Each structure stands twice: as structure tokens, then as C-alpha cells.
Amino acid sequence: MLRIREVKIGVDNNTREHIISKLSKTLSTNVIDYKIVKRSIDARDKNNILFVYTLDVDVENEDKIKLTDKIIRTPNEEYVEPIKGVEKLNNRPIIVGFGPAGIFAAYTLAEYGYRPIVFERGKDMDNRIKDVDEFINNNKLNINSNIQFGEGGAGTFSDGKLNTLVSDKNNRINKVFKIFVENGAPEDIMYDYHPHIGTDILRTVIKNIRNKIIEMGGEIHFESTLTDIEIKDKVIKSITINDKDKYDTDVLILAIGHSARDTFRMLNKNQLYMESKPFAVGLRIIHEQKIIDAIYHHNNELLGPAAYKFAHQTKDNRGVYSFCMCPGGYVINASSEEGKLAVNGMSNYKRDSGYANAAIIVTVDQKDYGEGLFAGMEFQEDLERKTYQLGEGAIPVQLYKDFKDNKVSENIKADGIIGKYKSCNLNDILPSFLSSSIIEGISIQGQKVKGYDIGAAVLCGTETRTSSPIRIVRELNGESYTKGIYPCGEGAGYAGGITSAAVDGIKQAENIINRYCI
Q1: pTM more than 0.85
Q2: Three-state DSSP state, 447
Q3: What percent of the chain has pLDDT over 90?
Q4: What is the fold of 2-73?
């Protein structure tokens, strides 16, 4: 097979027949079949909007085709399997957390016969959804089963975006996507430039993966919080679940997520080596989707709801950028602690809410929140506490034009939000450097793409859970400085998003497989 890059097809001619015809002319041979590897959109010229494909093509007389930088032999992209080690594993490996990192660590270990035991502090998917609905409708928060905690992790209540910038020589990303598709995700995630599953479909996919893990010998326990660990001579010996059940272990994968603040404090008490790391905080911005479609897709309905991203370096040398953009989505109250409020974005597969939202976030580090392991986490908590108090438990909202003018918006109608909201002055929450950076970033983006900085855009506070403010330090073999503990995913500070967390879970499973036999 040949891989053909940069095959450009007009959106109005995007048929199988036309693509085969164009390939046949380009290659001067008969094309038997093709497979889409990647597909993106080039909408720079509103009069000539294109799909840009990378295709694997089966042709007659392949050996006679001249190879170029755009025509190559299809490379081998099969997953590079781990080789089992020789050290004896005395106890079944334990995984704490069943978000993307924990799920794919468990799947990989189960696939190779290691029968992992998983503990997740939240509930199974169906009961978790009931708890989230109860919180949204009646403001009753379950601190262990919510938007952040439960089967599938925080990514379950998101857009299900699978974008990543992770380098992947072992083809782990393909493995992740294939497992998703095998368990009910749409096949277009295998090639779309902006792949996403949608929270509605993702929930079923996660349950299907869970059942596969169990079929392969894994064991999954919900409502099971890690409350203590036993370390002797800098080696993990056992863990305690729910303050009562003790499990001996040689291998512990910590896939705890970025919101398990009580767990971070417990690990610090037990002298697991961690360090503070930079992260980003800010607000969510909501536009009518038709505004974003006009800016980025020139209102071409064949392209679906438009996504966007931008990044800017402020005059004060701060990074401000869009994050977790949700076309046709909703802003949702993503709180996981009483008296604190954080927001997130989510959307269903069809992305048909009529509203687009994205986090507009600003990088922060120790010069902003001070030194100390938990200083960044405490900075997050302070913002969330102020957000809750200002909104009186509802999501505080403000028109962008009023945010710039430092005044409360009157008669605001904030569609595109799930749950209660209240008109507030978000400047009362944010330090001035955050407010000014957000305004500068939105303003500069508005200069680049006319209409983005519309005054009627709605801002929502606050986006604080973009990534972990703490890193659990690990060595090259994946272990922490405490032997037998393998920190993993977003909570450990080694991933950002569903795909990179899943890949990190696979890596840590491989590290265990490469070392131990069963």
C-alpha cells in the first residue's frame, strides 16, 4: 500500500467516486481502494473550502509508482507489544483511579494476563450520572461521585476530545483509538483531525471497556477511596481502602486524577516525593455557535460545528490560550468539594446545543502563588471558594463587555449553561493579572478573527482544573522514588487530556510487564 499525503478535495465533491478518480489521475494507475488515515479542513479561502486527506491507497502496479515526500510506502503502525520480564510478581497489581490513565493501564495489564485490581473512589457510570443529575437539579453534592470523580474520570463529562501532541513511536495512540472504537466509539475518531466521542457516547464506551477488563481477569471496585499506604524501607507494602480494608501489593499504579486533593495530602504525609508545578487558570467563554461557524467555517453547513484554538503571549510575558474548546456544547458546574466551585465544558457527539464554549486560561507559577508543595493547590482552592461565595453556589456569569468595564451585567441570559447561574462581577474573584491577561488574549484574538471579541459573549467562572498543580516525581522506569509505586496520568503531572492520560496508563502498564512475570 501507498500513503498519499495532502489529497485536497472540495467539500462539495467529497464523494468516494471523486476521491478515487483524483487518486487515479494523480498516480496514473488504477486505484483499487483507499483508507482514510487523517482528515482536516482548510477553510482559509471561503470560496474554496477543502478537506485535506492523508490516505492509504491500494493500487495496481504499486512498484512502478515514483515515491516522493507526499507519496510513501505505508508504514507499519501496529502497536509495539511489551516483553514480559523475569522478576516474580507476588501480588496482583493494584490501580487507584478509573479515569483514562487507570482504565488503559488496567486494560493493558489485563490483556497480558496480570489480573489487575482497580479501586475507584467514585461510583459506577449509571449511579454516577444519577449523582451528577442530583447535584445539577437539587444542589446536593456527593464529594466522591460527581463531575470529577467516578467511572471514566473527569473526561467522561467533557467533549470526549482525543486531541494530543504526545510523541508516539510505539503506536499507543492507535491502540487507544482502536479500543475506543471496538467498544462503541465512532470510527471517524481514527482519522479526524479533531477527534471526539462526546459525553453521551463516551459513557457507554467506558462501561463496555470496563466489562472487557473484567472478562480478561481484572477486578474493579467502586466507592473505594485510597486512604493510606504502607511504605517500608522506601518500598510499597500495602494500601488501605476506605480506612478499613488492607491490601498487600508489590505494584501500585496511582492514576488519581488532578482533583484528588485529600489523596495528595495523604501521600505527602507518607513521604512520597512530589513537587509543585506550573498550571493555568481562567474563565470559560460562551459564544453562539453560529458566530464561531461564521468566523471559522464561513457558515458552510457541510463542515459541522466549528472548533477553534488560539495562544498569545501577553505584554507581561504570560501565556494565555484557549483550552478544551467545546463546539455545540455546554458549561457545567464541575465542583467536587463543598463550598468551592469550578466549571468545565462538555458536549454530546452531535454538538448541537447551539453554543460554543472554551476555557480562556492563563499560566501561573510560584511567583504568583508562592513556594511550598501545596501552594498551587491552595491557590486553586481559594479561587474556587471565592467563586462559590460570589455566585452563592451558582455559576457566576458576566458579559465580556461588562467584564472589561468592571461592572455586573444586567438582565443577562446565559444559554449554553447546564444548571443555575448568577450575574456577578468576575473581577471580584480573579487577581488583576489574570483579568488583564484574559482581556488581552480575547482582544488580540478578536483582532485576528473579526467577531470573536464580541461584547455579548458570556464569561463563566472559574476554570481551575486544567491540570494538576503537583507532580509525583518518577524515574525513567516509571517508578516513583518509592519503589513499586507508578504515578500515572494527569494527577501525577504527566498528561493533559484523555488521550495523553490513556497513553501514559499504557506506558506504566508496559513498565510493569517489562519487569515482572506472572
Answers
A1: yes
A2: helix
A3: 95
A4: Alpha-Beta Plaits (3.30.70)
